[in-house]
Amino acid sequence: MASKNQLHHHFTCLALLIFTLGVCEVASCAALEDASVNERHQQWMVQFGRVYKDTKERQKRFQIFKQNVLRIDSFNATNNKPYKLGVNQFADLTNQEFTASRNGFKGHMCSNTTTTFKYENATALPSTVDWRKKGAVTPIKDQGQCGCCWAFSAVAAMEGVTKLTTGKLISLSEQELVDCDTKGEDQGCEGGLMDDAFQFIEKNKGLTTESIYPYKGVDGTCNTNEEANHAAKINGFEDVPANSEDALQKAVANQPVSIAIDAGGFDFQFYSGGVFTGSCGTDLDHGVTTVGY
Ligand SMILES: *[C@@H]1O[C@H](CO)[C@@H](O)[C@H](O)[C@H]1NC(C)=O
Ligand SMILES: *[C@@H]1O[C@H](CO)[C@@H](O)[C@H](O)[C@H]1NC(C)=O
Ligand SMILES: *[C@@H]1O[C@H](CO)[C@@H](O)[C@H](O)[C@H]1NC(C)=O
Question: Which family does the similarity line name (predicted)?
Answer without folding.
Answer: Belongs to the peptidase C1 family.
